[in-house]
Design brief:
4-stranded antiparallel sheet, 5-stranded antiparallel sheet, Haem_d1_sf, mainly beta, 40% strand
């Protein structure tokens, strides 16, 4: 069985979390919640400093959070998505933090625009800020993205602050060529607890089925234990539970446009029996396969759920610790009932 390998130390001090792109031809792109942006060649172990995005986060950071995780106040998620033609990366950007109600329980954060990175030109461009209202509150926050085609993206957008009934969120369509947002009418209200749970809305990324009829939004419900399914034509929502044979905290993140991957962390203080399960989504149905990786003994207890996965699903990269070496990877994606290690060219994996 393959084991987790440490990569070269991060060449920067992260602001908040580190987020990944999919692994593209042995390259993975990394961004934090500030303006640090690099690529990492997994064959050579070399980081390359790339042009920084224009926008980061304008609020303050926590140095710790639930279970010791390094977090940013208000939840500003920046998972990197890649266009279908492979030429452009998109990331939520221009992070903001709303304290309208003045108490921690009602805080909300997110992105006010989308930034696009042209891979070949090493340049960024940005959308306008969100210019619509959600539940009569202007300028809602983008939490996650998925490409429908090379010009259209869908965004999970959350209300800027919580009310006594919970956090509201909708799907919005963004057209890159015209720089326009269209918000749809059907809103979902997140759980009404006055704890941190509702602020997780949209942490987990998004996926879209091949027929382009259904959007899947990860990271909703109590402690991320749900995903939401949005029917585009009907402007209606339904709810799905995560495939979850283990007990513990859960996060969801999307890589392929038609697949959600769930990452399950052990509860704080428990062994790191990290699980990655694959959810293939097509025509409104879910086919879930549990895939168990070897535990990463170096990984900090209850640390980051964000990873990058390659197209062949045999390589995973994760920010595993808050001290060097921070980045770990494993060249294995076992199928249910067995596992197989994969040799990569170069010296990154053995």
């Amino acid at each position: 069985m393959a084991t987790w390998q440490s990569e070269a130390n991060l060449p920067f001090s992260p602001s908040g979390h580190v987020f990944f792109s999919p692994v593209i031809d042995n390259l993975v792109y990394l961004i934090d919640q500030g303006t640090n942006f690099y690529s990492l060649n997994l064959e050579t172990g070399v980081y390359t400093l790339l042009t920084s995005p224009a926008y980061g986060w304008t609020g303050s950071y926590l140095t710790h959070g639930e279970g010791g995780v390094i977090q940013m106040t208000g939840r500003f998620y920046r998972m990197i998505t890649v266009s279908p033609d492979g030429n452009t990366l998109a990331v939520p950007s221009d992070g903001d933090f709303s304290t309208t109600h003045g108490t921690h329980a009602y805080n909300t954060g997110g992105a006010r625009r989308i930034e696009f990175y042209d891979i070949s030109a090493n340049t960024w461009s940005a959308s306008k800020q969100t210019d619509f209202s959600l539940s009569a509150v202007p300028s809602p926050y983008i939490r996650s993205l998925v490409w429908e085609d090379n010009d259209i993206l869908w965004c999970l957008v959350v209300r800027r602050y919580r009310t006594s009934s919970g956090w509201g969120f909708v799907c919005a369509k963004y057209v890159k060529s015209t720089d326009t947002f269209t918000a749809f009418s059907q809103s979902v209200v997140q759980d009404t607890q006055t704890t941190h749970h509702g602020r997780y809305v949209g942490e987990g990324g998004m996926a879209i089925d091949d027929a382009k009829t259904t959007i899947y939004c990860g990271g909703t419900g109590h402690k991320n234990r749900m995903w939401r399914e949005y029917d585009i034509a009907g402007d209606t929502w339904s709810t799905g539970a995560l495939f979850s044979p283990l007990t513990g905290e859960k996060g969801v993140f999307a890589y392929k446009r038609d697949t959600l991957y769930t990452y399950q962390r052990g509860l704080s203080g428990s062994p790191d029996d990290c699980q990655i399960a694959k959810h293939v989504l097509a025509s409104g149905s879910q086919v879930a396969t549990p895939d168990i990786f070897a535990a990463n003994a170096a990984r900090d207890d209850y640390f980051s759920p964000y990873v990058g996965i390659n197209d062949d699903e045999d390589l995973v990269v994760q920010w595993a610790t808050d001290s060097a070496p921070e980045i770990y990877s494993i060249a294995e994606f076992p199928s249910a009932g067995g596992s197989q290690a994969h040799q990569l060219l170069g010296g990154a994996f053995i």
